[in-house]
Structure formats: C-alpha cells, structure tokens
C-alpha cells in the first residue's frame, strides 16, 4: 500500500510534514496484520508550530463571515461525496469494518458538514431593551483554538464530528486522530485544504497520546478540549484541562442497556438488535451490550439471538461476503478472551462464539452470546467494546430500570415495548444521554449526541454541539 503510506503526514500551518527527522509508527491492517505504512509522529517543535498556527488561524477565522465559513464546509461536503468510495476503502483497510458499514461513514460525514455549514449562519445573540435607555446585547462568540482528540472506531465520522462544529463556530482546531487509523483523517484534511480552508485554521498531528495531550492542554493558546474515547483517558484529560479552566466536551464510553419487554415485536426486535450489536464488531460506544429480557420471552429471545449470531460470517472487510470484520487491534482480542473466561468462571452460559477465529496474525473474533451472566462477572460492569452480547432475565419494569441505571455509565440505552405509557416511563427513567425506543439509531446531525455520569458531559451535533464552541458575552450600551 505505497499510495496509502505516501499520503500519511502531519498537517501544520498549511504544510504537510513527513517522516524525515521524526519518529515513525507502523500502521497495521487488522485483517492480515500487514504493515500498511509508516506514520510520522510530531516532535515538540511540531506541536509548538501547530499551536502558533492555530493562534494565527483563530484570528483569521473568527473574522471570516459566517457565509464564507459555511461555503468552505459545503465545498468539503461535496468533495467527501465525490470521493466516498475511496474514503470508505481506506476506513476498511485501516480499521477493519466491512465495506457496507464503511460506506455509511462518508455519507454521514456529508450530512454533518452540510448541517454545520447551515448552523454557522444560525448563531444568534439577543437584544434586551431597558426602560432607562440602556440596551443590553447578548453575544455568542467563538471560544478560541480547540484541541480535539478522537477514537479509531469511526475514522471518518469521528474526525468530521470534531472539525465541523469548531469551524462552524469560528474556532481554529488542532486535531489528534488515532494513530491506528490515520489515513482517513489525512484524507479529510486534504479535502478541507482543497475546499479552501486557510492552512492555519486546522492542524492534524499524530504522536504519543499522553505527550501530545499534555503539551496542547498546558498551552494558554488552547481554549477548549473535545475528546472521544475511554472513561479513564477522559478523566485524565479533564484533570489536565482543569489547570487552565478549559471548556470541555467529553464523549466517553458506555455499557448500553437494552430492555426487552414481553409485548415487543419479538422477531423485529431480535433482527434489529443482532445487526446493531455486531456492527463494527461491537466496537461502538453506544453499542447495545446488556440485554435485559423479560422472563416470559427470555428463552425464545436467547435461542433466536444466538442462532442469528452464529450465522454471521466473519472475514476481511474488503470481502463482499463478510458480515463482520476483525477487531481493530490485538488488545481487543485479548480483552474479549479474558472477559468471556471470567464470565464462564462465574457461571454464565456460552450460547455462541467465544473464541478467536481465522488467521492468528489477524484480529478476528467470533460473534459471541453469553446467557445468564451474573452481576459479579467483570463484563457486566466493564465495557467490552467488542462482539459480546450479555443476556439476563428480569421480571418487573422496576427491576429492569434499576439494572439499566446500576452502572456509572449513561451514554446510549434502548427499550422495546408496544405499550405507549411504558415507553414514556422508560424514556423518563433511564439515566442516559440518548434513548432509542423500538429502534436502534441514536445519532442524527441535528440532535445532541452525548452522555451522562461517567459517559461524559456536553454534546456533539445539533445546536448544542456548536454552542459548546461558543462563549457568552453581555454588552450593556447606554
């Protein structure tokens, strides 16, 4: 993959920087273990240059009329649409997801770019009239340069989700994508460059994560932190950000509860949930994970769910007949093995999967269904972030709600019932930032995306996502 490797680089101040004079890190294909390319890692001087560029870029971009900012985002959207097939191929190559799933990423990225282009022109303040003749203006202004860090599981969408609201608000941005899936991010930055974004406005850097984050967050240039990733890393970054009272948006891990009542449309429910559970090999922050199924239908649900999981074909994401690709890295495979072994030792029943499969050099793991999982099992409290479905019966609605809210996570949650009053009660009682009832989709460009409790705070997408990049100023004129 010489073309892939040749395009990798850092983007700082409108210039691309390669491996010369820098340490480099191998990027692997998770379906084969092969090296795709060498990624340059930013030096301290590179990070200082990125901060200086972001500071210059902010002065330029905040003064750029909203219509012009919107035009850049719209041009970028058009280029993403034009190059969707190649972007999807790169995402599959470096992340492992099947082609059908990878193809949805450019499409959603286009939606995000176009929606934020329009929202850039909907940043309103207000005027307050005073009886004494004083007029008060409430202004919404861009907060400043943003340090953004994103995960590897959606290498196109995660990047756009960080960049689009920052640019719409008038902020500059320094993005550190995942070093495991850099090619997708690089292509998005090349598109932004071609779309006419001034070079100082957006920077793309890679490096040792803790080194990069400490350097960027310690700088007085950085005014906002936006992070998507694990709960422990999010808490670490929040502590660093606190030293400068930096505004933060945190989209952290989850442990998605699913409550399935005995009055649901069972066949449709199982079909939806199997597809959503094993999407991207379960490596989704809002993936349904803990399936709490009412006792009267529990056995039927478990049998049908396991049969469908066993029928899923695993293989390279580039193969036309693959229905689930590999895990993104060997760490996830080890984590799956350890969690399943612990659950079985605690008395859980393995109904499907449970083991590594395919070439030992690759990261394939079977779609796995585990029934009657005791609460003491590690996987019932720690996010598996992989293709493991955990089944547990319940008797009453109150019991199900209590179990759904038991953990300190509150990102995505799901419920299936045909009872309208129960739907309202569940939607009100579940402690999560997003709840889907009789469906599985939680992400829409115009709706807030984010969690409660340990799953983070603040929102991405929707007007709330742009507002997270703004500060409020009151001006009183006599």
The N- and C-terminal alpha carbons lie at a distance of 65 Å
Number of helices: 16
Rounded mean pLDDT is 96
Largest sheet: 7 strands, mixed
Roughly how many Å is the radius of gyration? 23 Å
CATH class of the largest domain: Alpha Beta
Taken as a percent bin, the fraction of beta residues is 15-25%
Q: What attributes characterize this protein structure?
A:
478 residues, alpha/beta, 7-stranded mixed β-sheet, 16 helices, 22 strands, 21% strand
Structure description:
Strand 18, helix 15 (420-429) and strand 19 form a beta-alpha-beta unit. The mean pLDDT is 96. The protein has helices at residues 2-7, 44-62, 66-82, 84-95, 99-102, 104-119, 157-169, 182-194, 209-218, 231-242, 266-277, 295-310, 330-345, 397-404, 420-429, 462-467; strands at 10-12, 15-17, 24-28, 35-40, 126-129, 135-142, 146-149, 173-176, 202-204, 224-228, 247-251, 256-260, 288-294, 349-352, 368-371, 388-394, 409-410, 412-416, 434-437, 452-453, 456-457, 470-477. The chain is globular. The chain contains 16 helices and 22 strands. It has two domains: 2-252 and 455-477, Aldehyde Dehydrogenase, Chain A, domain 1, CATH 3.40.605; 256-445, Aldehyde Dehydrogenase, Chain A, domain 2 (3-Layer(aba) Sandwich), CATH 3.40.309.10. The chain is 40% helix and 21% strand. Strands 14-15-16-13-12-18-19 form a seven-stranded mixed β-sheet, with helices on both faces. The protein has a six-stranded mixed β-sheet with strand order 9-8-7-10-11-21, with helices on both faces.
Map the helices and strands.
Layout: H1 2-7, E1 10-12, E2 15-17, E3 24-28, E4 35-40, H2 44-62, H3 66-82, H4 84-95, H5 99-102, H6 104-119, E5 126-129, E6 135-142, E7 146-149, H7 157-169, E8 173-176, H8 182-194, E9 202-204, H9 209-218, E10 224-228, H10 231-242, E11 247-251, E12 256-260, H11 266-277, E13 288-294, H12 295-310, H13 330-345, E14 349-352, E15 368-371, E16 388-394, H14 397-404, E17 409-410, E18 412-416, H15 420-429, E19 434-437, E20 452-453, E21 456-457, H16 462-467, E22 470-477
Parallel strand pairs: 7-8, 7-10, 8-9, 10-11, 12-13, 12-18, 13-16, 15-16, 18-19
Antiparallel strand pairs: 1-2, 3-4, 5-6, 6-22, 11-21, 14-15, 17-20
């Amino acid at each position: 993959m010489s073309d892939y490797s040749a395009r990798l680089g850092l983007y700082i101040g409108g210039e691309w920087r390669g491996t010369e004079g820098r340490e480099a890190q191998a990027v692997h294909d998770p379906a084969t273990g092969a090296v795709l390319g060498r990624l340059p890692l930013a030096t301290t001087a590179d990070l200082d240059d990125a901060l200086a560029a972001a500071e210059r870029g902010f002065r330029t971009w905040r003064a750029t009329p909203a219509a012009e900012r919107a035009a850049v985002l719209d041009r970028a959207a058009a280029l993403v649409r034009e190059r969707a097939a190649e972007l999807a191929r790169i995402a599959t190559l470096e992340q492992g997801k099947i082609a059908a799933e990878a193809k949805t990423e450019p499409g959603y990225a286009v939606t995000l770019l176009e929606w934020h282009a329009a929202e850039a022109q909907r940043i309103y303040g207000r005027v307050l009239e005073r009886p004494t003749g004083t007029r008060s203006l409430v202004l919404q202004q861009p907060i400043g340069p943003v340090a953004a860090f994103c995960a590897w599981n959606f290498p196109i969408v995660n990047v756009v989700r960080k960049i689009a609201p920052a640019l719409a608000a008038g902020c500059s941005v320094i993005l550190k994508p995942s070093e495991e899936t850099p090619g997708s991010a690089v292509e998005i930055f090349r598109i932004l460059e071609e779309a006419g974004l001034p070079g100082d406005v957006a920077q793309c850097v890679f490096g040792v994560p803790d080194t990069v984050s400490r350097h960027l967050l310690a700088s007085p240039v950085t005014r906002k932190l936006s992070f998507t990733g694990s709960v422990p890393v999010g808490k670490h970054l929040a502590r660093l950000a606190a030293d400068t009272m930096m505004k933060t948006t945190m989209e952290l891990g989850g442990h998605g509860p699913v409550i399935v009542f005995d009055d649901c449309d069972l066949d449709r429910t199982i079909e939806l949930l199997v597809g959503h559970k094993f999407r991207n090999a379960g490596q989704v922050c809002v993936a349904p994970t803990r399936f709490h199924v009412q006792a009267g239908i529990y056995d039927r649900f478990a049998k049908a769910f396991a049969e469908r999981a066993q029928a899923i074909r695993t293989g390279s994401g580039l193969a036309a007949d693959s229905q689930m690709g590999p895990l993104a890295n060997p760490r996830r495979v080890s984590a799956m093995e350890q969690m399943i072994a612990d659950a079985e030792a605690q008395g859980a029943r393995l109904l499907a999967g449970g083991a590594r499969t395919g070439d030992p050099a690759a990261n394939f793991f079977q779609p796995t269904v585990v029934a009657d999982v005791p609460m003491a099992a590690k996987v019932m409290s720690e996010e598996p972030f992989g293709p493991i479905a955990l089944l547990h019966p319940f008797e009453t609605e109150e019991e199900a709600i209590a179990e759904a809210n038991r953990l300190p996570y509150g990102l995505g949650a799901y419920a299936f019932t045909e009872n309208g009053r129960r739907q309202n009660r569940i939607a009100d009682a579940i402690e999560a930032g997003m709840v889907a009832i009789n469906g599985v989709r939680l992400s829409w460009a115009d709706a807030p995306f984010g969690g409660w409790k340990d799953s983070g705070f603040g929102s991405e997408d929707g007007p709330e996502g742009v507002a997270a990049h703004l500060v409020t100023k009151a001006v009183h004129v006599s």
